[in-house]
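WARN retry 2 of 3 for item q-0093 after timeout on previous attempt; input resubmitted unchanged.
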Amino acid sequence: MLFLALDISKSQTGWASWETGTPKPRIGHFKCGNEFSSDGMCQDVLWRNISDICAFGLPDVMAVEAPSDASKWKGGRPFEYTKTLIRLSGAAWFFAHNKGIRRFSEIEKNFWFPHFIGTNKRPPKGEQKTYCIKQCEDLGIKTENNDQADAVGILDYMVHLEGIIPPWRQANILTRELGR
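OK item q-0093 returned
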C-alpha cells in the first residue's frame, strides 16, 4: 500500500510518501509560487510536482492538511491566503480524482498533530512547528524544515487510520501512549 501526504502552502509544500514494506518515508518539499503568482499558476505547479512524486506509482491513499483560516494564524494573513489554500487543496483533490486515486482526504491539524507528538504533550503557542521537527528526529526521520515534518505527521496519522504500525513507530510503540 502506498501513501502520500501533503502539507500544502503557496510558499512551500512539504510532502511525505511511504510504501508498506519499506523502512522510512521519502520526504521533500517544493515551492508552488510567491506573492506575485496567481492561484492558477500555483495549482499548475502543485499538479506538476505531485505528478513527479507519483512518477513511479500512484498512491492508494492520499491526504492533505485541511485548509485553515489563515487570518487566525500567528501574525495573521489576509483572507485571500485562505482562499489560496482552499484552491490548492482542491487542485490536489482533482489530481487524485483525475488519476483514479480512490481514497483522498483532508485531515485537520487538530486530529493529526496530537496523534503525532503524543496526546499528553501541549506545546506553547507558536512552538508547534519545532515539536513536529523534534518528533521526526525522535523517530529517526531527518527533515529539512517544518513543512516536511508536518507532512510526516500527516502521513503517520494516515497510516495509523489504516491500522498499520510503520517501522519508525515499532521501537516507539509506547511513546505516544505514555505521552513522551
